[in-house]
Amino acid sequence: MTATMGTPQDTGPLVRGEVPVAGGERAARPRRYRPLISYGRWWWALPAILMVLVIHYLATAGGALYAFTDWTGIGDFDLVGLDNFRRIFEDPTMIGALENTLFLAFGFLVLTNVVGLALALALNRTLKTRYLLRVLFFTPVVLSPLAVSYVWKFIFDFRGPLNTVIGWVGLEPRVWLADPDLALWCVLVVMAWQTTGMVMVIYLAGLATVSPEVEEAAALDGAGTWQRFRYVTVPSIRPSIAIASTLMLIQGLRVFDQVMALTGGGPAGATETLATQVYKETFALSNFGFGAALALLLTLIMLVFSVLQQAATRDRN
Amino acid sequence: MTLQSPRGFRRIGTLVVIPAVSALALTGCGGGDDGGSGGGSADGFTFAFENASGGQENPWVKLVEKYTEETGVDVETNALPPDSFGLTMRTQLQGGNAPDLMMFSPGSGQENSAIPLAEAGYLEPLGDTSAGLVPAGSEALFGIDGTVYAQPTSLIPVGITWNSGAAAEAGVDAPTDFDSLIDSCGTLADEGKSAFVIAGAVPPNPGLMTMAISATRVYAETPDWNEQRAAGDVTFADSQGWKDTLQTVVDLTEAGCFQQGAAGGGFDAITQGITQGTSLGAFLPGSSANELMNATPGLELEIEAFPPAAGGEPYMLASSNYALSINAKADDGAKQAAQAFLDWMAEPDNAKTFTDIQGGVPITGPGDDLNPVYAPVAELLEAGDYAPLPNQGWPNPGVYDALASGVQGLVGGQGDVQSVLESVDQAWDQ
Questions:
Q1: Which CATH architecture has domain B44-153+321-346?
Q2: Contact residues on chain B for A179, CB-CB shorter than 8 A
Q3: pLDDT of residue A166
Q4: Could you give the dihedral angle defined by the CA atoms of residues B1, B2, B3 and B9, in that order, rounded to the nearest 10 degrees?
């Protein structure tokens, strides 16, 4: 209580310039708040802000202008207005890439968050081996996505371990990554397998803020496991949910490495995403204008979904 | 106040100096390039090329070593990975720091094609010696309006790379007609082997297979099919030849001519299948046979043409898959040095040296000392019964991409012939 009431030795308000000092008349005059001790001025950041604006945003905006041209990467170009965007929505391959992107993004979002939260709840307190298991589940996160994808490519290979295992139970071998019905799911599994550990850690950090006393009190009041989770745990970890879901959605929307390493967008475009199409159109097919339009569309989609995600998961209290 | 002024100046100074220093630093990073060459001089030149042979010795490097030994000219080589070569060259050409001599693909249909770069003014017109090497009928692949910008290097036949040793063990003859090929596929499958191994997961390989098949179904009867398509007289979707070509792929798939899990196979599957003899044939550039035989002692490979349909005539693909061009912004001395190298390379002895190393056929045509792997197609080569790789004459890389991706789908049981051909037409018209 004394701390909140203030003490004769409490110099905080003085330091912050909130109380008059000697010569009370001048100090009591209403004036703009200004700390007596501060650690910087706003313009100290100006060079950095300028650099960010010029190098990051201006360059990006410059790149976005190419979305309205037919530039092939060399020579001159013409302004084509919205033709590139029209072409995107008229091309079944691009529509397929957009659908695949959304499927992977939302599948990734749901899978990583559900499994990550389940792992975090399981490894939060009582289990004796929880520290070892946390390390094991987190290990894939520190590996290179490309390296992980190539390992999984070997697992999914027609003569790989997965087909050997399913052969033991009498199932026919499958061409996992060359089957248009399975390939996208395979990519999703690899993405989720590698990233779930990260989500688990985010939720573990959130669960550390949940007071055991509050949970015990809820239990004493007769709340069941589900009710304690729904009405005590979830509200307490809402910031973690917001962070984990936003990060996973953005990561899912810009998936590239896993698709390129596992399928290269195949078979016959069945696993193409907007990010792989941006790369392919821009650097493999030399359609820089069209690739820039795809990149701009992907950026807008990420922006819109991120804003929606933030709105949906923000703490209304 | 006496303290305020210096502080004020310091503030302003900070605001001015930091961006200025940053700008200078960035300018320094950018270099003071004047759009000139990548460092060649009158005594030598720089030379960039694709290094597709991995750890093996590159034929360009060997050729350059021989050139330097003979002439004393210093050549700085830069071997780059094929998947990023085209993009790197385009970036360097625009940045003004491209090498003096570069390796490209003829025509416009690939990402590292020479003609779009020549149209943009990045390539130097070449001399008469270079022009004299351009195969008749292929002028548009190496130049614009009679001016040559890319010197062809060697002929690379494309057909079936056939493991004759494994075929003899399996009691199968090299395919000469399509029906017997289909029949043999079933027999081989029963023995746990396959007639062909393909990298179904890598679209360019099914794409190359399709082009090899198109030699007899399209280009044998209509060598100027590409020109007709460019003029709008024909389309892929309406072409019986292209329909037959893609139907042949479907027939091969349904007859079990490819290895198990072909749709998911990579290039490693080809290497293993061919060298171990579990598959008898693969669709590869002819020069790959040399590399595979060098890497696998005892391996017997030869190049066969893909068999024609019933009533068709044998025909195949053979073209200069690589061409050399000089950077238009190179220093004059470097340009002359690079042109002197091209002239030296055009001499029959040196052309033969290169093809001996590379495993191709001299651009001047097959002679008595034709590489033995080409013996089964020697008559076709001597008679001129071959067409250049079709995609060299296509207008953009998207056409081949659409074909290769579509055929990848057909091998995996996805899509149909007509929709694939329509997508190829769509890519052509972009």
A1: 3-Layer(aba) Sandwich (3.40)
A2: 263, 412
A3: 94
A4: 90
Tell me the C-alpha to C-alpha distance, in Å, between residue B394 and each of B106, B346, B422: 11, 27, 15
Alpha-carbon distances, residue B361 vs A37, A124, A127, B366, B409 (angstroms)? 81, 69, 70, 6, 33
Contact flag A158-B261 (C-beta cutoff 8 Å)? yes
**A286:B401 CB<8 A:** no
The residue of chain B with its CA nearest to that of A281 is B398
The C-alpha of B174 sits at a distance from chain A's nearest C-alpha, in angstroms, of 28
Question: How many residue contacts between A and B have a Cβ separation below 8 Å?
Answer: 97
CA distance A279 to chain B (A): 12
- Identify which has the larger pLDDT, B56 or A292: A292
**Dihedral (Cα; B138, B139, B144, B150), 10-degree rounding:** 80
Q: How far is A184 from chain B (nearest CA, A)?
A: 14
pLDDT of residue A15: 43
CB B157 within 8 A of CB B319: no
For an interface test with A, the pick among B11, B405, B423 (most A C-beta atoms closer than 10 Å) comes out as B405
All residues of chain A having their beta carbon less than 8 Å from the beta carbon of residue B21 are none
Whole-number pLDDT of residue A12: 45
**Does residue A3 register a pLDDT over 80?**
no
Nearest CA in chain A to B114: A74
Partner-chain contact A268 B414, CB within 8 Å: yes
Say whether residue B202 is in contact with chain A using an 8 A CB cutoff: yes
Q: Which of residues 73-112 of B touch A (CB under 8 A)?
A: 86-87, 90, 93-94, 111
What is the pLDDT at residue B103?
94
* ipTM given for this complex: 0.79
Write out residues in chain B with pLDDT < 70, as ranges: 1-42, 52-56
Q: Do domains B44-153+321-346 and B156-319+374-428 have the same CATH topology?
A: yes
Kindly list the residues from chain A whose CB atom is less than 8 angstroms away from the CB atom of residue B415.
268
Residue A33: per-residue pLDDT: 66
Chain A contact for B406, CB < 8 A?
yes
Span of A12-26, A233-247, B401-415 with lowest mean pLDDT: A12-26
Q: Could you tell me how many residues make up chain A?
A: 317
pLDDT in tens, B47-90: 999 886 655 578 888 899 999 999 999 999 998 988 888 889 99
Tell which of B16, B21, B90 to mutate to test the A interface (max A CBs under 10 Å): B90
The residue ranges of DSSP E strands in B164-236, in sequence order, are 194-197
Peptide bond preceding A267: is omega within 30 degrees of 0, i.e. cis? Answer: yes
- pLDDT at A149 (0 to 100): 96
Task: Give CA separation, A81 vs A99, A180, A276, A287, B5, in Å.
Answer: 25, 35, 24, 15, 53
pLDDT digits (tens, 9 = 90+) for B345-386: 988 888 888 888 888 888 877 877 888 999 999 999 999 899
pLDDT of residue B366: 80
Which residue matches tokens 């013996």? B375
- A63 vs A110 pLDDT, higher one: A110
Residue B161 and residue B212: Cα distance in Å, rounded? 11
CATH code: domain B156-319+374-428 is 3.40.190.10
CATH, range A83-313: 1.10.3720.10
Q: What's residue A37's pLDDT? A: 67
For chain A, the residues whose C-beta falls within 8 A of a C-beta of chain B are 43, 46-47, 50-51, 72-75, 93, 156-159, 173, 175-180, 263-264, 266-270, 280, 283-287
**Is B123 in a helix, a strand, or coil?**
strand
| pLDDT at residue A254 is higher than 60 | yes
> B264, A178: Cβ pair inside 8 Å?
yes
Query: Closest partner residue to A72 among B116, B122, B264, by Cβ?
Result: B116
Q: Where are the domains of chain B?
A: 44-153+321-346, 156-319+374-428
